[in-house]
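note to self — DONT lose this again. spent like an hour looking for the file last time. sequence + predicted structure for the chain T wanted, 198 res
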Amino acid sequence: MNMTPQSALRALWGTITDPANAARHVLTWQISLANLWAALLLVAVLNVLMLALLQAVSPVPVALEGQGMGLTPFSYAAIILVFLFLLVYTIYHIGRMMGGQGTVDDSLKVIVLFQAVSVSLEAVQVLLVIISPMIAGYFGIISLVILIRCVLNFVNVMHGFESIGKTILVMLFALIATALIAGIVLSVLGVAPTGVPA
């Protein structure tokens, strides 16, 4: 099945109402590997932009000023890209080791979809911060629950598991492996918070 703007919007909304069914639908899309990697790059950049906007409009307590990580937009984008790239492969390989049936293409599709959901929720939170920081804070907690539910259902469908428990293990091992490898890769690339030697 080919992806259209309409089907993409339906899938995006479906991730909130029925994430498992949305994942099954997205996995049927015929998208080239090159376009999938381009989509991953796009959602990573949008993620950085949304977080920058959220930081810009969020009231920061004086006591916390100057205590941030000091990451430049380029450094943060590099971190996200490396992390997502590795996550695609760790979810694929670890899932296969545990009896999953997913492919690299499938892993790319679910990570891109997950990031698209994340960016959409961040955009809503930016608007809510302008209206009420308190409401935006509550929405942030709700968003986290939605994202966890989404990624577990996405990976469960992708690998054809019959148990969310197995999916939780895959995600746990994948995140640990991704964090460890990403730390090494980013150190080699010299990506670190501003003023902190890599």
